[in-house]
Every structure is written in C-alpha cells, then in structure tokens.
Amino acid sequence: MFEKVLIANRGEIALRVLRACNELGIATVAVHSTADENAMHVRLADESVCIGPPPATDSYLSIPAILSACEITGADAVHPGYGFLSENAQFSDILKEHGVTFIGPSGDDIRIMGDKIAAKQTVDRLGIPVVPGSPGAVEDPQEAIKIANDIGFPVIIKAAAGGGGRGMRVVEKREDMEVSLQMTQTEAKTAFGDGSVYIEKYLGKPRHIEIQVLGDGQGGGVHLGERDCSLQRRHQKVWEEARSPALNDDQRAKIGATCAKAIADMNYSGAGTIEFLYENGEFYFIEMNTRLQVEHPITEMITGIDLVQEQIRIAAGAKLGYTQDDISFNGHAIECRINAENARTFMPSPGLVENVHVPGGLGVRVDSGIYSGYSIPPYYDSLIGKLIVFGNTRNDCLMRLRRALDEYVIQGIDTTIPLFQDLLKEKDIMDGNYDIHWLEKYLAKDA
C-alpha cells in the first residue's frame, strides 16, 4: 500500500479522496492555488503545497508544479480526481517515469479512450454495441453525405478529441452537411487541437445510461450497475440516479455483463465508466471515461463499495477481492449537483458563503468542501457540493430528497437548490419519464 498520496485536485473531490486515504491509513498531500489556500481539503490534509496562481493552467494543470510537489513531499502516488489532469495520458506517463504511481489506468488506455474514434473501434471489437456511423474520421463532404444517407438523417457530427458537450453539431438534411462539417472541424481544431470529426446516427429521445466498471489489470473485471444521467443542461449532467427507472433487470444484467467482460478482456486497471445512449430497448456506446465520475456516490450507496478506496488498492497492485456474484444492488439513490449558480439564469455566483446548514438523517450524504465564511473563488467550475440521497425504493428516495433539499441552507450566494425543489413538483420527474432533452425543454418554458 502507498505511504503518501498527493491529491492533484480541489473542491469536494479532493476532500472525498482525502477521506478515503485517511480510512486506509495513508498520509495525504493537498496541492492548491493561491485562491484555494483556505479550502477545506487543504486544512485537513497532512501536508499542503501551493503550486501556483489562480489560473488552472498555472496550477492544477501544471504537470511540472505537481511533479515538484511530489518530490518535495515524497508522495509515492497521485490521485487526480476528475477533470484537470485525470485523463491526461502524458501526466500518467511522466509520473511513472519519476517513480510515482498514477491512481488510474495506463497512459495507453487513456489515449485509446480519449480518442472517440479509436474508443468506438476498440469497444466494437470487444462486443459493446455502438451507434451506427462512420468507421473513422470523415474529411470530405461527399463522403459525409454518403454515410449520412446510409444510416439516415438526422446525424450528429462529433469531434474525435471532444468532450464536455463541445464539438458537436446535429445535421437534419443533406443540404446542411458541407457547412456543418466544416464548422465542426474548425471548432474541433480550435477547442481540442485536433480537427478530426466523425459521424453518428442522431437519436431523437434517448436516455443517457452509464455503467460503472472496475478492472484490476490482472484479468479481473466487474460492473457495479448503471446510472441514469439523462437530466442534462447543455450536455452537462445535473441529476443522476442509480438505478435507472427505464431499465428492467434483464436489460441491466445483460449490458452490465457485456461491459464487465470487455474490461477484463482489455486488462483495464482502475475505475471507469462506459457511457451509452439508450433508446427503444437498445444501447449505443458513446464514450468511456477513464476516471472517477462526479456521480460515483450513488453507485457507492446502492453497492456499499467505496470506489475511491478500490482505485487506490488496484493502483497499489491488489487484485479485485470479489467476483460479480459477490456484488449486490440494494435500494435507489439520487444525486443533485449543487452549483454556485442562479437556479434560472445559471449565471455563476462566486463569493462569500455567509452560512451553511447541510441536511442529515438516514440515507442522506453531502459531499462538499464549503463552510460558513468560505469565499468561493471565481476561477473554477461552479460545482460546490453534491446532495446524495438513498431510499429502499425510488419513491422513498424522492420523498427523502424533497425533505433534504428543504433542509439545505446556503446563504450569501445563489445556488441551484431551488431548481431541484421545482423539479420534484413535475410529474415526469416523479414518474422517471424523461430523456436527455427533457430538462432543456423544461427550462425553455420559463426563458
């Protein structure tokens, strides 16, 4: 086991990793920008190192700064959390060259899954269902039109190196293809440094279903069930559920087994999430995230498995201590992402947190690094906390969520708590009857 883990992140995820390390008896190092010197994870870590000024490019994304912090403190492993350098293959490789373990998959696996075309080709070979589309990158408008005609309009053009909902464009008809292709290529080059794009069938009313997997890199692989992340705004997840209201036990068992086998066959090491669009009883692969997900707590709630501790154990060389048959799924869990934003305009709301009261009680978990008197900096993502609620049934969970939201108080800034309170008044939400477009249509009604 590792002696000292450096946490290369900030906010609630840095605190989440710190807690897992503490429970494993591992010393922790917090790195921080000058804007985060009073952050909770910095206060609680065994050691802390300032790695630069507020801009992420000069601090949390600075590989030399983080490597220097490892050398100064003697950290023998780095947990990247999510975002920042968590899916940076070069970072993984450089740490390895310096004798520091990256708590995550190999650089090669990160590269493959970070390229949407290579990822699609890889999982197709492994038996995972994919969205009909081009076999590789598309450059010529006439070739793009032929592919779109074969699979049927509408189609979606996607950046091969894309992510976070950027580098995508829906094409409804043949006449729009040439301009749309050129625009997406230009956007992809500007945003990701790679103008490669590919084409897929555009699904009209899908749900976003993802499968949590774990592999030990030694032939072992399991799945930990699915999460439904269909409530999204601008391709960003807002509310997640485990398990999905849309699937039956046969469907979830089949897709879970397929993903677990693929992970074992890949000899994948660490935690990962295989994401699908689901429509009319069919799953279509969209991407694999080779890291911990923001919404991992709902999987922990229904399985009782600490995903961060599993990441650490696997990175330290341990095999999975269980098989698929040993994993049981109980109850229902929902996560609401609490952002420092206006609940209607979604304008960021950094500033001084005057007072915080978090909800409690059976089945309620809050992952957050804010506290009364903390000043939220304006330089980073607006996520300030996650409210995770568990119930024996989905209805129990929804009722508990309503109660927990009513108890949750954050004064001094705007938050998205009122949005979730409003959503719980909607019949479609209570019935679990929504797709990836539902939330934006709902928000557009009041725009």
Write the layout of secondary structure elements.
Layout: E1 4-7, H1 11-23, E2 27-33, H2 40-44, E3 47-52, H3 63-73, E4 77-79, H4 89-97, E5 101-102, H5 107-114, H6 116-125, H7 141-151, E6 155-159, E7 168-171, H8 177-192, E8 197-201, E9 207-216, E10 221-233, E11 236-242, H9 249-266, E12 269-279, E13 282-289, H10 296-303, H11 307-315, E14 332-339, E15 351-352, E16 355-357, E17 364-368, E18 375-376, E19 383-391, H12 394-407, E20 409-411, H13 417-423, H14 427-431, H15 438-445
Can you walk through the features of this model?
The chain has 447 residues and is an alpha+beta fold. It has three domains: 4-103, Rossmann fold, CATH 3.40.50.20; 132-201, 2-Layer Sandwich (Dna Ligase, domain 1); 207-445, D-amino Acid Aminotransferase, Chain A, domain 1 (2-Layer Sandwich). The protein has 15 helices and 20 strands. It has an eight-stranded antiparallel sheet, sandwiched between helices. Strands 3-2-1-4-5 form a five-stranded parallel sheet. β12 (269-279) and β13 (282-289) form a beta hairpin. The radius of gyration is 21 Å and the shape is globular. The chain starts with a strand and ends with a helix. The model has no long low-confidence stretch (mean pLDDT 96).
